[in-house]
Amino acid sequence: MALRRVPGSLDEFIGNARVVDVLKRAIARDRLPHAMIFAGPEGVGKCTLALLIAQYLNCLAPRDDGSCGKCSVCTRIMAVIESRYLKCLKADDGFCGSCAHCRIRTRRHPDIRLVEPEKTTISIGQVRELINEIAFQPLEARYRVVILDPAEQMRAEAQNSLLKTLEEPASRTVIILVTTNPYVLLQTIRSRSRVLQFGEISPERIEKYLFEQQGRTVEDSRLAAALSGGRLAAALGFNTEEYREIRRLAFHFVVLLLKQGRFSDASAIAVQVTKDKEHFERWVESVAALLRDIYFVMLAPERVGERELLGKMEEVAAAVDRSRVVGAINAVNKLKGDLQFNVNRQLALEAMFLGFAGKR
Ligand SMILES: [Zn+2]
Ligand SMILES: [Zn+2]
Question: What residues are neighbours of ligand 1 (ion), with CB under 5 Å?
Fold first, then answer.
């Protein structure tokens, strides 16, 4: 059975309890601001919370701590959440309207609008269309909720056209701008909105959630949470097997680098890890982290991040000079800098290996 990835109701939302509390209290007193900015790091659930608030406001059978999650309103708002990441199974570009994913889209609630960039920006055309729609009463919702995500993808022109709507909001309409950085929005937009700041989620909380609600193993949950950077979305997308494979190749490379291994072995690794840019970047990060850990093994063992490989790293640390490890860290940092300039990844990695391996 596929596990549900999204919370079904407000009380299932993970992290940022203070923000949730502020919103709930505002709703209880019927004082929810008509324009809000949800600001904070990527992947902590800003847009999801906006949709859960829409659900809470409109649920046909709300409970004290959240929406029912079952009524026709709740399920159609769930469809908005679910369809965020769904692409049509048949059409490469656009929607066929009949495949399983498109059918979820067609169930979406008409008054809960999620406006996302069409290509790279939320265009002035999209904003104008929205303003025209808001001019009318909601079709059926008690509260229409409009979410623009990411709001900073609106150019100044599009933001300006939204100003008047923020100033004189339509009745029963809540506008939520989702952004990682509110300061890239126009000051006039910020001054007309209530800014709610989201923070990272603690690794302990993420670990508990992955284990208890997503059916991950203890070990898998711990690792995904520790490497998530406080972002639930990153933890959910984390692939343990892929991570272990990246780390295995990174460790092998580190040993070759520090112990002056054969170029042909290093080159074979380079061929494997440089095919995909994103994959390669994660691999380089892993090499950098392992080198840092080996350095810590020599100086401050309590700071080693990767405890699983501690024994193997101690072996390496005993066999090489500290200055050699520092040199390798610098070489990897330089490689990371070079990669900013779209160099040939494989050649850059091989050149780094040769340049460093020759040094004693
Ligand atoms: Zn409901
Ligand atoms: Zn389709």
Answer: 59, 67-68, 71, 74
- Bridge partner residues of 147 (DSSP): 114, 176
Q: What is the pLDDT of residues 156-204, one digit of tens each?
A: 999 999 998 998 878 889 999 999 999 999 999 999 999 999 999 999 9
User: What CATH homologous superfamily does 10-199 map to?
Assistant: P-loop containing nucleotide triphosphate hydrolases (3.40.50.300)
CA 54 – ligand 1 centroid, Å: 11
CA distance 155 to 340: 26
Dihedral angle of Cα 316, 317, 318, 321, to the nearest 10 degrees: 110
Ligand nearest to the CA of 91: 2
* Ligand 1 center to 38 CA (angstroms): 23
Instruction: Give me ligand 1 centre to Cα 357, in Å.
Output: 64
Q: Find out whether 117 and 153 touch, Cβ atoms under 8 Å.
A: yes
Q: How far is the CA of 85 from the centre of ligand 2 (A)?
A: 13
Q: How far is the CA of 9 from the centre of ligand 2 (A)?
A: 27
pLDDT tens per residue across span 205-262: 999 999 998 899 998 898 888 888 888 988 988 888 888 899 999 999 999 999 999 9
Instruction: Select the CATH number that applies to the domain covering 240-357 from these four: 1.20.120, 1.10.3470, 1.20.272, 1.10.287.
Output: 1.20.272
C-alpha 100 to ligand 2 mean position (Å): 7
∠ CA 57-59-63, nearest 5°, is 95
The pTM (predicted TM-score) of the whole model is 0.77
